[in-house]
Amino acid sequence: MTPFESRVMVCDACLRASCWYGEFMCDDARSAGLTVLTVGDLIKLGSEHEDNWSDEKMMRVYGNANRNFNP
Asked: How far apart are CA 52 and CA 25, in angstroms?
């Protein structure tokens, strides 16, 4: 898997990891679910800084940087 194929859980309303992680929540966050996007998709969207889905952030949020989760 290339870095661009790595998966990240994001808010399904705004498609931002920072919202799903509870840091910068969108207006629809309370009723939103989650979806999984690739890092490549998030880069194309350009809606937040790449630090929001870095391995370091994944370690803080999930306790590991394993991106093989199933929502």
From this structure: 13
Q: DSSP string covering 46-66, please?
A: T-S-GGGGSHHHHHHHHSS--
Write out the H or E segment, with its range, that includes residue 43.
Answer: helix 39-45
Which residue from 37, 40, 39, 21 is spatially nearest to 29, judged by alpha carbons?
21
pTM of the predicted model as reported, rounded to 2 decimal places: 0.85
How would you class 3 by CB atoms within 10 Å of its CB: exposed for 0-12, middle for 13-18, buried for 19 or more?
Answer: exposed
Q: What is the pLDDT along the chain (71 residues), one digit of tens a residue?
A: 788 888 999 999 999 999 998 899 999 999 999 999 999 999 999 999 999 989 898 888 888 888 876 55
